């Protein structure tokens, strides 16, 4: 009997330790800890399967090389300002690389749904289930920055040049904004669609049309009138055009005109505000879906 009491007292939680944990731990710190742990899990998966990262780098690099070779004999100045096609194409490939990676952001979550791991997370005592979404977003943004850095270096090697420090910082901001919105959209689709087949179908259907309906491969002046209107409504165009201006001009400011549309000329600051509005619209649109899923 005495031995049993000693064992029970030894196994009983220490009230002092429990009180210290309640004092030191906060919902914010728990949320950060959960997000970092889930992000680490995704990074471990990437380390075990690096083919996805390699494919995300090799594919846009092939686009850069093949399209550059395809238009290598185009007349100098065809795209304006004595601009070579390699320098014209580089911003489009940078944005398309980030966009493609962000559009695939929902696939890991979808596979977690189908394999049952997501259900285990939803019934776990998490401080906030939104850490699942935050971890996926951080992972995709980090992956997109790695791919973007590789493409910038490759395009510089192929003759596209390299913007200055301020220009690279502005490119990082633009890539972050477009990746944030598209990642949120992809995660919303991962929770809304019934399976990965449907999600892959949406990705395949929207990927190339959004690319060709933007200024990634050709300027607005080369397009038909109806396609100019569609391209002017495409969020990718609002990311490509300011990056293209940064490649062409060393001097720029927040009020510098960087984009011409059929109805309005836009400055760098206006383009940033439009990308922020796009992110806010997508985040607000997926909120009811996440609340219903996490309820």
Structure description:
This protein has 13 helices and two strands; from the N terminus they run ααααααααααααββα. With 295 residues, the chain is mostly helical. The chain has one domain.
The structural domain count equals: 1
Portion in helices: over 70%
Per DSSP, the total helix count is 13
Based on Cα principal axes, name the global outline. globular
Class of secondary structure makeup: mainly alpha
Q: Would you report the number of β strands?
A: 2
Strand content: under 5%
What is the topology?
Elements: H1 2-11, H2 15-24, H3 27-48, H4 51-70, H5 85-103, H6 106-115, H7 117-123, H8 130-157, H9 165-192, H10 196-212, H11 225-233, H12 235-248, E1 257-260, E2 265-267, H13 268-294
Antiparallel strand pairs: 1-2
Helix pairs in contact: 3-8, 4-5, 4-8, 5-8, 5-9, 5-12, 6-9, 8-9, 9-12, 9-13, 12-13
Brief digest:
With 295 residues, the protein is mostly helical.
Looking at this protein, list some descriptive labels.
295 residues, 13 helices, two-stranded antiparallel ribbon, mainly alpha, 2 strands, globular
